[in-house]
Design a protein that fits this description.
207 residues; alpha/beta; Spore Coat Polysaccharide Biosynthesis Protein SpsA, Chain A; 2 domains; two-stranded parallel ribbon; 43% helix
């Protein structure tokens, strides 16, 4: 790609062999390109972001799922978009242009669409996909947002965008295709939906 990069892999003691594969990649590409930063147990997405940031040396950070639901082919488009508008954040969107979701059942699609719709109505965040996590951040912007965000779970990604708008950061969007993981299961259940609604109301009351 011609871009100087490093890949930081945060593995929270997952039983699926992620760490072993990352160690093999580290041997192939070198520890300057592949940085494996494991943690002994699952400590949450927000703390994983902070853990990753502590080891990032670049000016920009791309955050993505490691199961290839987020395809790396979109990263050059994120970089182009950022340069084009000098954006603080570039967010991947499944709900604009030729973006889409593949592999989800109707229930999961309805939950995601519903969450985005309710949030658009209540918070007017100015971005079309609030629950996705495939994003490029200016490093100092990500650090500032992590200081402000208090949510956990499903509502966390949404709060990142809402707080960004509140703080006056600029957001660009790139349509992406999201392909559901082939192995493993989503952890989205009734508890996560309830916590999302609580988080949404909290944001509505505080922004």
């Amino acid at each position: 790609s011609g871009n100087n990069f490093e890949i930081i892999i945060i593995d929270d003691g997952s039983p699926d062999g992620t760490q072993e594969i990352a160690e093999q990649l580290e041997k192939i590409y070198g520890s300057d390109k592949i940085l494996l930063r494991p943690r002994p147990r699952k400590l949450g997405l927000g703390t994983a972001y902070i853990h990753g940031m502590e080891h990032a040396t670049g000016n920009f950070i791309v955050i993505m799922d490691a199961d290839l639901s987020h395809h790396p082919k979109f990263i050059p488009e994120f970089i182009r978009k950022q340069k084009e508008g000098n954006f603080d954040i570039v967010s991947g969107t499944r709900y604009k242009g030729n973006g889409g979701v593949y592999g989800w059942d109707l229930k999961r699609k309805l939950i995601s669409r519903g969450a985005n719709f309710i949030t658009q109505v209540l918070l007017r965040p100015g971005a079309s996909d609030l629950t996705g996590s495939f994003r490029l951040y200016r490093k100092e912007v990500l650090q500032k947002l992590m200081e402000k965000c208090v949510s956990k779970g499903y509502v966390f990604q949404m709060e990142m965008i809402v707080r960004a708008r509140q703080l006056g950061y600029t957001i660009g969007e790139v349509p992406i295709s999201f392909v559901d993981r082939v192995y493993g299961e989503s952890k989205l259940g009734g508890n996560e939906i309830v916590s999302f609604l609580k988080g949404l109301l909290t944001l509505f009351a505080t922004t």
